[in-house]
Task: structure prediction
Amino acid sequence: MGVEEQREEREVLESIFPDEITDISDTAYRISIALDVPQREEDDEELPTVVLQVNYPDAYPDKPPALDVSSPPNAPKYSHLDIQEDKARLLETLEPVVEENLGMAMVFTLVSTLKDAAELLISERQNAVQAIKDVEAAKAEEEENRKFHGTAVTRESFLTWRAKFRKDMEEEEQRIRDEKETEERKKRGSKEEKKLSGRELWEKGLVGRVEDDDDGADALEGMENLHVEDIETS
Result:
């Protein structure tokens, strides 16, 4: 009875997967499962294929088949699925299906379950990578926005800024006043140096020169007057 059911299931599977099924022996075969995964614009990898190997025991389907999962020979590596590392997880998803279908043909259901599990695993990893990219992009955008918007103003930060601004203005006004006073003192000092007192004139010897000049002028004028008087007397 088991052999007959195995043969019938094998014929049905060949009609469903004519190009995907390959016989290994009378009781063993492989089915290649092409995965259908949404591709993003930056993805340029070839979509992966998973191979399910089925070995019937004599008592199948009352006893579970021996199952194995592999990748096709020389298949390119896919970034979000590694059959060697993910094999245990994928086979684990098939265990409940085997238990639920004992006594019935179950390989088609196993193929569908394996396909869904592998695609879900890839999708989860793609979403995780995209989530990291989104977080990094959000951080970069936030940092860029800070350059244009600056720091948000709060009441405390405004009061602090205003106090500092007023202090800076007062210091600047005081500096300008000090500079003006210094300049005015310099100007007054220059004028006072030009206007000498009598004592300063005397100390510098300027008083004697002025008096000598006046005496000389008076003597010359006296001589001229005397000369004029003598002429008139004669």
Strands lie at 21-25, 28-34, 49-55, 66-70. Confidence is low (pLDDT under 50) at residues 226-234. The chain is about 65% helix and 10% strand. The helical segments are 2-16, 83-100, 107-149, 155-194, 198-203, 206-233.
